Each structure stands twice: as structure tokens, then as C-alpha cells.
Amino acid sequence: MLPDGLQALLVLQERDSRKSQLDKVLAAVPRDRVAVETRIAAHKAGIDAAKKAVTDLELKRKELESNLRTLEGQIQRYRSQQIQVKKNDEYQALSHEIERTEQQIGAVEEQEIELLYGLDEEKARCAEAVRVLEAAIGDENAQLARLAEREREVRGEMAAAQAEVERARAEVQPSLLPRYDLLVRSAGLPVVVPLRAGKCGGCHLKVSNGIETDARTGTKIVSCDNCGRIVFFEF
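Below the sequence we write its predicted C-alpha cells.
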């Protein structure tokens, strides 16, 4: 049998444990939210990186096109100069420059063709990356919504749990509350634990014979002589 007042303490402990669990859930929400937001930021950075790879190739293509226009302009100037020169060696020198510039144009055009193939491939990779990452962002946003909903639910449960705690505290003998509260602060829940095979259910150390006898008779509330938790005999 349980000593007077212990059943009310067990009820209070159960209510406090429930409230403590809700506290932990609420405490985890901000951490979970930060983790989700961090993943969203990483996905967005991935999208930006994929788009930048395309942009860099497009800028390179424009640079090549600008080089082509410059080289073509040089050829036009050389040909205009050829019309004006009168000496054969000057004419041949300009012809050599035109030939050299045409070779440069050919090399740039090859680079441009190769780049265009690479650009098409990069655009395809970018489109796929954006599709996958935007879907991932959608999933993470849905997780944020679930976290917000869970937080609202738990806050509602917390209000009810707090009311239950207050009602349970009102049923406990006033002389026992300070002892119970001190144990909760120092040892943490649970602080009212059963004896099993002569061992405290909190610290799992063997109690003295006197404590075990008193707990078994159930005539008074006793504490573990190792950790101080309130112990009772579990029949």
C-alpha cells in the first residue's frame, strides 16, 4: 500500500512529465525551423550557382562575338589600305595580315561553336537542377508549415497541461510540495520512483534495509539514502 499523500504526488509527477515533454517539443521547434531554413538557403544557392554557370558561358559567348567583330573590322581596314597602297611589298604585307587575321577568326569561330554546344548542355543541366531544387524548396516550405501548425497545437496542449498541473498541485499535501519541487530542480523527473529488488528506480543503487522496510510497510513517505528521491514499494 502507498503512504498517505504519495498517490497525489504520483499524479502531479505524471502531469509535470507531460508538461516537460511538451516543453521539449516546443524547444525543438526553433532548432528545426532553423535547420529547414538552412536547407532552403542551400537549395537557393544551388539554383543561383546553376544559373551563374549558364550566365558565365553566355558572357564568354558575347566576348567571342565581340572579338569576331573586332577581327572582321581589322580585315576591312586592311583591305581598304590595300586599295590605297602603291608598292607591291606593302600590298603583300597587308595580304599577310589579312591571312593571319582570317586564321584568328577561324580559331575564334571554332571556340564559339564549341562553347555553343557547351552552353546548350549547361542550360539543360541548369533547367534540371532548378526543377529538382525548386521541388526541394517546396517540400521544405511545406515542412515549415507543418512545424508552425505543430507549434500551435503544442501551445494549446501546453495550456491544458499547465492547468492539469495546477489542479494536481492543489491535491498534494502542502508540506510535501517544497520537497517535491526541490527534488525536481536538483534531480530532474522522475523524483517519485519505485523500489525494485531493493534498488532505487532513480539512481539504481541499493537502499538501506531500513528504507526498504519503511517503503514496504507504506506507513510513511521515505527517500532513497543515495540520491534523495522519494521511493515506494512496488507490489
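The first strand starts at residue 192 and ends at 196.
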